[in-house]
User: Fold Myotubularin related protein 9 from Ovis aries.
Amino acid sequence: MEFAELIKTPRVDNVVLHRPFYPPVEGTLCLTGHHLILSSRQDNTEELWLLHSNIDAIDKRFVGPLGTIIIKCKDFRIIQLDIPGMEECLNIASSIEISEWRLSYVNKEFAVCPSYPPAVIVPKAVDDEALRKVATFRHGGRFPVLSYYHKKNGMVIMRSGQPLTGTNGRRCKEDEKLINATLRAGKRGYIIDTRPLNVAQQARAKGGGFEQEAHYPQWRRIHKSIERYHILQESLIKLVESCNDQTQNMDRWLSKLEASNWLTHIKEILTTACLAAQCLDREGASILVHGTEGTDSTLQVTSLAQIILEPRSRTIRGFEALIEREWLQAGHPFQQRCAQSAYCNSKQKWEAPVFLLFLDCVWQILRQFPCSFEFNENFLIMLFEHAYASQFGTFLGNNESERCKLKLQQKTMSLWSWVNRPSELSKFTNPLFEANNLVIWPSVAPQSLQLWEGIFLRWNRSSKYLDEAYEEMVNIIEYNKELQAKVNLLRRQLAELETEDGVQESP
Amino acid sequence: MEFAELIKTPRVDNVVLHRPFYPPVEGTLCLTGHHLILSSRQDNTEELWLLHSNIDAIDKRFVGPLGTIIIKCKDFRIIQLDIPGMEECLNIASSIEISEWRLSYVNKEFAVCPSYPPAVIVPKAVDDEALRKVATFRHGGRFPVLSYYHKKNGMVIMRSGQPLTGTNGRRCKEDEKLINATLRAGKRGYIIDTRPLNVAQQARAKGGGFEQEAHYPQWRRIHKSIERYHILQESLIKLVESCNDQTQNMDRWLSKLEASNWLTHIKEILTTACLAAQCLDREGASILVHGTEGTDSTLQVTSLAQIILEPRSRTIRGFEALIEREWLQAGHPFQQRCAQSAYCNSKQKWEAPVFLLFLDCVWQILRQFPCSFEFNENFLIMLFEHAYASQFGTFLGNNESERCKLKLQQKTMSLWSWVNRPSELSKFTNPLFEANNLVIWPSVAPQSLQLWEGIFLRWNRSSKYLDEAYEEMVNIIEYNKELQAKVNLLRRQLAELETEDGVQESP
Assistant:
């Protein structure tokens, strides 16, 4: 994840700077990754440079369309910026606020957490030494890290493994400090545990557990129930078996579809993702998501919440970045989970269609918002295929550490480098895409969720006529472009001829 | 139904006429509703006029691309026509063959069959007197009439009410003659009874029954099971109730969907319609369809078979004609069936969503063949709405007789006259339509059939984003037309300017 991606660096003109004992100064505000720079309009020599790390606290105020940001610095300086336009003001405020986070390389040798990448984003207030301690208190060393920063209001999604409280109710001061450091004063957050309460309680017997609210007083814990492992794998096996059932009996088909529980899993995952997104966007609260390991249901929730909240994750490049960040770098064990699929008899307990369920959930949202995604269904199907069997190195191994040891970056080609060639991209581009900068709220009513025919019925019936309809649409849009080019060319020719006429007439 | 619609009247050049003892004559063949006319090329004065009703038998033969039709006349004349092109030959042959049928006005006072229109198409070999006798042997006076003529091979769909055999095995020679008259020598036909065998057997106790194969030796009877009346109404009530269920439980939803049996009914109806279409198109056999009255499941089957077989019925005008012919004129009791819908407590035994099931089946086919229909889903939804509540006269009354008595044609406006205005039509036109002249075979596997969200979930969730996608597609196609017009205009201007240049240069 690029840290710079999190920082909006707009340039805003007509900003007024107020300092005690000084006259107001009007100028232009620029933000870089490290500095806030104000250049005076009257006197080009006067420039105020402020390190983000010098900022102790910031306040926002609005009077009509005029926004005011008050920045209180660690060196006791206080400055006030009047910014015309509420949106610009919010953008700047959140860009400054994100400086509460930092890139940490504490895991650069994969020693602190074997399933994490070398670089992670953590609260600025917590140093690497504390992170090492927190890692010993979290399942698999997965200390809480930043997953998503909601620019609109500065709220965040963090993810981690379960806390190792055990039956004795073990505590970790550094863990408590880290988690609280992500909340502003007086703010509350939500811990979304993807397990039901009883499962979380049972986990204590094996050394796991959950956060005691007494020790995390600003946080409220919510338990959801997303299934894991063999339950999901059995669900997939049952679903595929019923899709292949040729008895032509409607009752039997619907009973088997129900008994597979696949759509129930889809519903549970989407519901939890919506809850996560609601916490950020509607409640204005930050969240921490984890289940047991933090490598499966946790990633389903954090990545789907981003699909809902963040328009960029609905573009092709943005979605690729999301999968890179929230699945590959985040340590989803692809090799274990996708070793076998629905037809294998030797069932291993680590096989589970966790990633396929995520893709299915994305498809459900795509189906409900057909213009809001830059990619089409074929893109999701292609990713499913490559997760299970691929000539590229991208989905090999179980985490970044394994991929490094296998030298996959040197030895194999990346799926993205192939997919991003224009000839491939054209297959995956949604012709109806119109950038939608809003949060999109999918319906999770059972009536709204459907079987993903493109995956589960693709070998059972010809898709010839559906493909034709799709191609027809693509052709129409291509033809549009050709016609537009023709119009431009003809206009140019016409203009040239008219000019020639003018030249001929003048002498 | 227009009789003329059944007759293809192509004009074919380069036809060679052979007659015994005469030299061959080359000329042009024209077909009218009554005559076959051959004009000689060498000598414009020579014209052969042949009344269709003079034709006793015809034979077809093919040698490579050359087709030969041998026409044997009732006056013992035999002529042979060599026709270049197999398709032209088949078209002409079937156009001649349809002359085995005639328009009968035996029911012009609605006295023979109160639920039939004044004009019906029946075999030429059967006179009105015989029709009157057959009417007394068929439920509700519904003697067998022509529903559809398959131009490709001259096979037909007929429909009727059940035969009134009763427990004594009553027979009707005229009925047997009528039904056999529709088959060419040596050909077999299928009687599709929409009831299971035991239901058909039980019907004898109430005076009804089914055709004994001994008395209809060229016909094979097939029993299917399409549900009727209150079973369908209860199915609709259960389905709508489960769609409105807000308990957000996936298992409950799927159980209730299954328990409603709605999709089972869809499957049964579509399966029977496919069977009917297969008999005609694949087996080259004619069929007779009936259940009990011949006003419900019978019409579902005959009209859906036409959707499958006949490209014209997939156009807007063709579908309107289909509904006019196979539902309104054919005497589906709309007033009784559509008096109430899913929310009414006072359940009457004659209420049933027979027409809605038909529309749903059309939607299922439309979904599988998105480019093959000139109309879109909104057209079907509009028809559903008007069948249940309408400011137009079209769907009032139970049959043509009632509509005549009520003087609806004088007192009300027709739905079609409103729908066919360009401003309305544009809402119902499928932007992806590309005329598909083939028979389309829908999949009836339970996995391929889906809940019609546009009808059953339309009030339960916003369709804003789906509507937007549809409008986007329509806009793109509109913009295409504008661009094309612009290209044409600019080309014209360019050509004019270039001509002017030429004129200026020449002197």
Observations:
- Residues 464-505 of chain A form the longest helix (42 residues).
- Chain A has a mean pLDDT of 89.
- Chain A touches chain B through 60 residues (CB under 8 Å).
